[in-house]
Amino acid sequence: MNQAKSVLAVVEPDIIPREVVDRAAWLAGIKGATLELLLCDSEVGPLSEIPFVSNEARDIAVRIRAAQEEMLAELAAPARDRGLEVATGVLDKRPIADGIVHVALDREPLFVVKGTRYQSDAERASLLDTDWRLIRSCPFPLLLVKPHPLPEHPRVVAAVDPMHAADERGVLDERIVEQAKSLAADAGGELLLLHAFQPLRGIGHAATRTFKPIRLPVEEISEHMEREHRDRLLALAAQHGIDERSVHVLPGSPRDILPYVARQEKADVVVMGAIARSARSPDLLGSTAERVLDHLPCDVLIVRP
Prior knowledge:
The chain is of the alpha/beta class. The chain is 43% helix and 21% strand.
């Protein structure tokens, strides 16, 4: 087990490897950590490990290994030039997500950094989708990198739910705010606190159908809900010393509001949570992170309670 602080960068040759390494090196730099590059290529292992594979196939595996080491050295060079301590390794096990988690549990990194790209709902629903598997199982903060430049002083949006709908003790919100606040402070950036909630007005028609014995005062209840959500969010902001001007409470589905705010506020990183909804079903997570991942124009930092 490595007790030194480190950032683990998951390098996939076909998913923005340079951006991933750059972002991981940036994190390592502002956190005073070492950097480890983990090249994920699950196609090579069988060529060298299965007993009945031919000598020619093994020779191909050796050449591929050499090419991998060359690629890692090239990717590591800029970080080393900046004075960072960089280690490299290759992961050739399947499923890739399980292998990444295994390595992370051994290293105990400050962050796991991985590239992500748009995929269809069917592709995301696949049990082989590495991003979703990591969102569900990675016990360390997971930064999913998009192909966009990161400014020197980034804008960080912390997306929270102060009503604690799926987190009664509010542990997840604390983790989200702490990570976002620390990231913004270390990078000299700006922090915004965001909460999106579904207003009652959105279901008002169903609530006030004529066959109901009593009509619900939808407007009055909606105004009360909005005040309660805002008060809870402002209390969370005050607890963490966040200026009220940096607090945003917006009615609407998080799936719609988060991408909208990220674009309007020119966010560079959105910090959000993933949590199991039931102790009996640990793989069933709140799906907000999964639903908005492909729609956010910036990096996404996933934290767990």
